[in-house]
């Protein structure tokens, strides 16, 4: 259990946001944490869709069950979040 | 006794290129301070300032300028512009005075370093007047702002801002320390007098003066026009310096300094001028859009100056052109959203008519930035102000020290770079390029986010961050300038439709 801040680039948002999460969190949980700071604040909700996460600039998302500590991401590294 | 004509004695008085006998020249003009780059004294003595003035003439003209400004203020105080002004205009005054007043004192130190360290006698002479200019600017702006402190404590930031760790101040200090305060006299004059002053002070002091007159604030208009009349003179310090450098094989050095200063100036002016012009100035009083002013003063005029000197446009010119339509809209969304962190109350500037104006001036605004405002407006319509304030911090650029913003759906991305085991974040490839020019110069600085994550800010929550930034200490933070009254227009439209 350790604090693991990431940089969130949420599709439709205008600014990169700091999202403090835990290295034991799965990518599904990380996406949920990122959504709290964008959805219904600066980005419209899209009911029925799920949020995926991928390393900034890459095309393939992380599997939802992968833990942050196993993702290969560095603390504060930028993650793209988008509706699928 | 009859006075000699100026032309009969001026050149003798300014030619202070003495031959030193008791101290080595290197000790009098250390290279790190003068930046003379091996150019000989004979060459430096050819520096020919385009604007010549004697001390007697200078004092006479400056006295007249001060008389004009202070008498206009005294006359118009009776009209109580403050009580009648739109709240968006009051926010412009708070932002301007807090960001500019004491930086003028820093600029006096900047000019004083030319007086002492420049190897060009003509430049030393002219910089003496430039130094006095900047002292006048600081004193006038502090005096004018002080008048308002009794009306609203947020005006206290005019004097105190630069002593705080507010995020906007961190950005301004990083920029001004880099450009005004910590380089040799030659480099500083190119960056500050040529790139910054000939380019960008026009935006703030001429562009905003038009808006001020239109808005009925003739005191502020007169003040900043008076300041600009000095800027227009001492900004010319840099041009003959550039000519000497270019003629003596230093073109690449000059170009690099201009490229750095122009981009850094652009970024800070998106906050200082861009946001007020396009969002705070009441719609009926807007002279031009920020983009239109930028196109006139920077894209056309500054580019022409570069061309006349034989210099090139910065390598990132296409990125800058694109940014004119985008960057400050992101910073507006950011400053308004994180309004509790400001020393002024930002105007949203997104009523239905204002959105029409934005779409006309910036086609595509509604489909990008407008989408974020749609969500914010919906929350306000439903009475949920608390849902319009973020619960976390924005990620900050390690060069501009501004939030990393971009156009929704198209241009928002981090530009990271790992250096010395630390991951740095940048808002653009230009910001990253500037860092890469001299990583040791910049690498030790901590952005607000770096400070938050490394435990410098306690308690490590939003309350702790606000107190760290001086909010609730010097004054309360910002709210919506119009107390959300603009949202009623959307409610009216909705009521009519239903």
Automatic annotation (TrEMBL), chain A:
Question: Pfam families this protein is in?
Answer: TmoB
Please state what the protein is called: Unannotated protein
The scientific name of the source species is freshwater metagenome
From TrEMBL, chain B:
Any one Gene Ontology molecular-function term assigned to this protein's record: monooxygenase activity
Q: Which Gene3D superfamilies match?
A: Ribonucleotide Reductase, subunit A
**SUPFAM superfamilies, from UniProt?**
Ferritin-like
Q: Does the keyword Electron transport apply?
A: no
List the keywords (alphabetical).
Monooxygenase, Oxidoreductase
* Residue span, YHS domain: 411-445
Protein name, as recorded: Unannotated protein
Q: Does the keyword Oxidoreductase apply?
A: yes
Q: Name one Pfam family in it.
A: Phenol_Hydrox
